[in-house]
Amino acid sequence: MSILIEASRLYQLLEEPGRPVVVLDVRWTHDRPNGLDDYLAGHIPGAVYADLDTDLADIDPGDPQRGRHPLPDIGRLQETARGWGISAGSTVVVYDDNRSQGAARAWWLLRYAGVADVRLLDGGLAAWLAGGYKLDSGPVAAAPGDVTLTAGSLPVLTRADVLDFAREHLLLDARAAERYRGEQEPFDPKAGHVPGARNAPTLGNLGADDRFLTPEALRSRFEALGATEPTVGVYCGSGVTAAHLAIALTVAGYEPVLYPGSWSEWSNHDELPVATGPEPGGR
Q1: What integer pLDDT is reported at residue 175 of this predicted model?
Q2: Average of per-residue pLDDT values in the chain
Q3: DSSP letters of 236-281?
Q4: Between β-strands 21-25 and 91-95, what pairing exists: parallel, antiparallel or unpaired?
């Protein structure tokens, strides 16, 4: 089953009578964490809004040592997913307007929670509009679903696992190069990277049209970074854009393992080592 879906195919699915398709609008950026107003102004017909900070992460993270986007309680996520209309057998399609970075979190989290058929709209909202398809405005009230979620359908790294993993496997840091090198850190208490991690900025997964590169091009990218075996670890600032990297790795034929706490958790633990500079081992 393909992870990515074309706008034309999504349109076809939405036109099929009786097809259980749930579309999630996950508009989110660091500067605009709540995209509800944009969603209400115009969204793919039938799409429901998913708030990344409150629906796709712990609603009250409280302790910074857990990171900025800790995973939500699976029972609460199940209640939320049912409110979106997700049932057993639903096809779920996620999209955003920010190079699929917020939508990637929704894809990964729902797959982690056991939803089998989750697709990401390749190219996001811009691809839908480029296809000449209309938008609707206002809220959407979905018919309640009955999905049952169970955590653990995708593998994860815990804080305790990360250093050993980096010694034995490739660990990729999805943040921008200046954050990886430790030259800049706008969000977290320390600058740098996990010792042993290599830098693979998220947006390198995309072409000029903000769509994912071909599987062959993505595989070449990851091979150049040292991906010689199926298992590859990924992290980012707070577990959001690492999901984007996880999608790209999956498309390329790898088996990503995501560290949900990511740098925002790691950098809040003074006992953990930090590397700086352009090399994995750092200074």
Answers
A1: 98
A2: 95
A3: -SSSSHHHHHHHHHHHTT-EEEE-SSHHHHHTT-TTS--B-SSSTT
A4: parallel
Q: Is 4-130 assigned to CATH 3.40.250.10? A: yes
CATH superfamily of 162-266: Rhodanese-like domain (3.40.250.10)
Q: List every span in the chain annotated with CATH 3.40.250.10.
A: 4-130, 162-266
Q: Which residues fall within 8 angstroms of residue 212, CB to CB, at 6 or more apart?
A: 4, 100, 122, 205, 206, 218, 247, 248, 251
pLDDT of 140 over the 80 cut: yes
**Residues paired with 156 in a beta bridge:** 258
**pTM of the full structure:** 0.95
Could you tell me which residues are beta bridge partners of residue 49? Answer: 25
Query: Which residues participate in catalysis according to the annotation?
Result: 236
Buried b (16+ CB within 10 A) or exposed e, 212-229: bbeeeebbebbeeeebee
Sort 139 into a burial class: Cβ within 10 Å, 0-12 / 13-18 / 19+: exposed
> In the structure, what pLDDT confidence band is assigned to residue 30 with cuts at 50, 70 and 90?
confident
pLDDT at 64: 85
CA distance linking residue 27 with residue 97, whole number of Å = 6
